[in-house]
Specification:
The structure is a single chain. By secondary structure, this protein is of the alpha/beta class. 21% of the residues lie in helices and 35% in strands.
């Protein structure tokens, strides 16, 4: 989202600077390799750090962390979806579809009816672990730069 950084800093007192990472867990090595390939090969993101049981993939504004420990898969948490800020939702959706993944919300324009409406182009896909991923291109919403 496009926001005035100083304004955001002045409103928060918790010391939180932003979202660092979203963590995904795989049940086995094959699932881990599929997930890693989706985020690196299909979406074109870069591995930042890798270790025996996991990987941190750079998104430009945080990381996707993928673990391959198997324990607790799909039993923890209730994340509805996560969203990538995206410059071209349509071409991203086309690349995901070409790689064989489901686009379950086709690219479309939306307006979030907030006090100051947010205009965006969005699409959703299911990732290799069943995670729901939104691609979000915020248009000029009149928000401070």
């Amino acid at each position: 989202m496009k926001r005035n950084t100083e304004e955001v800093r002045s409103r928060r007192s918790s010391g939180i600077r932003g979202l660092h990472h979203v963590s995904l867990k795989c049940g086995d090595a094959a699932e881990f390799l599929r997930a890693k390939a989706f985020y690196t090969d299909v979406l074109g993101l870069r591995v930042w750090r890798e270790w025996n049981e996991g990987v941190l993939i750079e998104t430009g504004a945080g990381y996707i962390e993928i673990f391959c420990t198997g324990e607790g898969v799909k039993r923890l948490g209730a994340v509805r979806h996560f969203a990538f800020a995206c410059d071209d939702v349509d071409s991203t959706a086309a690349a995901i579809r070409a790689a064989g993944y489901e686009i379950f919300v086709e690219p479309r324009d939306i307006v979030l009816p907030a006090e100051q409406p947010v205009r965006a182009r969005i699409a959703f896909c299911r990732g290799p672990l069943g995670e729901e991923i939104e691609f979000f291109d915020e248009k000029d919403s009149g928000a401070p730069a």
